[in-house]
Amino acid sequence: MRVITGTAKGTKLIAVKGMHTRPTTDKVKEAIFSILSTRVLVDKVLDLFAGTGALGIEALSRGALSCVFVDNDRNSISVIKTNLEKTKLLNKGTVVQKDVFAYLDACKDKYDLVFMDPPYDKNFIQKSLSMLDINDIINEKGVIVCESSADDIIEDRYHHFQIYREYLYGGTKITVFYAKG
Fold first, then answer.
1. 156/72 Cα distance (integer angstroms)
2. CATH (one of 3.30.870.10, 3.40.109.10, 3.20.20.210, 3.40.50.150) for 26-140+159-179
3. In 3D, which of 5, 30, 1, 32 has the Cα closest to residue 15?
4. Using CA atoms, how far apart are residues 56 and 176, in angstroms rounded to an integer?
5. Which of 11, 26, 87, 146 has the fewest CB atoms below 10 angstroms from its CB?
6. So where are the chain's domains?
7. Is residue 109 exposed (0-12), middle (13-18) or buried (19+ Cβ within 10 Å)?
8. Cα separation values, 128 from 12, 41, 86, 125, Å
9. Which residues pair with 37 in a beta bridge?
10. What is the C-alpha separation between 170 and 144, in angstroms, rounded?
11. How many Cβ atoms are within 10 Å of 98's Cβ, its own excluded?
């Protein structure tokens, strides 16, 4: 697992030890940023269920001004901080150890880009999307990128954003939402 391009290009990222984290593969990460390259000028990024922080770090390396990384696992938080230090992007990242739903419930900020890569077997995507919608967390030209199991059905029933497209990469589905308006 590495940073694909930008200021931290080629930097190897460390992974969280144990079986509960499933880092986004370089192939899928490259596909995500290829999809985003035609649409997104990003200032503020939110990386939910951040794990290793690889998606948010890639966004920072490519020019995003800031990223908030949210994960409730202590080991993940330590790995994200280490990866930010390795990439020399620590000054652009804010690392929050908190339950994602508690963070979203209290969130007053708006973001240009939100990554969500929750555990596949926990059914967290719909709840997270609902909270992003209810709390109006996406900027007017914002984008949400969800990584899920290829078998997951992602509903398109939100007031502030809608599905733009879904992409399949083996057992992984990437669902991209664009803000309405």
1. 27
2. 3.40.50.150
3. 1
4. 16
5. 26
6. 26-140+159-179
7. exposed
8. 29, 23, 30, 5
9. none
10. 21
11. 13
- Measured CA distances, 113 to 2, 39, 74, 83 (Å): 20, 11, 24, 20
pLDDT tens per residue across span 23-76: 666 677 788 888 787 655 678 999 999 999 999 999 999 999 999 999 999 999
- The counts of H helices and E strands in the chain are 5, 7
* pLDDT score of 128 more than 70: yes
User: Which of 86-90, 117-121, 134-138 has the weakest average pLDDT?
Assistant: 117-121
Q: Where are the alpha helices (DSSP H) in 19-119?
A: 26-36, 54-61, 74-86, 100-106
Residues in the chain: 181
